[in-house]
Write a structure and sequence with these properties.
The protein is mainly alpha-helical. The protein contains seven helices and two strands, in the order H-H-H-H-E-E-H-H-H. It has a two-stranded antiparallel ribbon with strand order 1-2. Strand 1 and strand 2 form a beta hairpin. It is globular and about 45 Å long. The two termini are 14 Å apart. The mean pLDDT is 92.
Amino acid sequence: MPTRSSKPQRSDCPISTTLEGIGDRWTLVIVRDMVMGKKRFVEFLASPERITTNVLTDRLALMEQLGVVQKKPYEKRPLRFEYTLTPKGMGLLPVLQEMCRWANRHIPETWIPTKSFMNKRAPARGR
């Protein structure tokens, strides 16, 4: 998995390698928002976590580099893009759902995700 820099991976551990690409505090929140239908920059900025524009720009670029999202223009002047999850990005859905289950069991003050989020299924994909 490519990372933000050209530094070699710390190890071949799948957990470590995955965290190098998506283990920051924002990437999975953006994936969550995309699963729930957000596509545009301004929609991501409206999320309750209040990501800053420069961090959002950086994360979307990294996610595109990793093949987790794809972008396409929806307006030419000014040039603006919509972002959607690739099948690789949708493959993160079960991880997010399990994180929700874990948090709801162990961190009582977390909100309960919607049934529509928890019932979504990632498309089947071979290795």
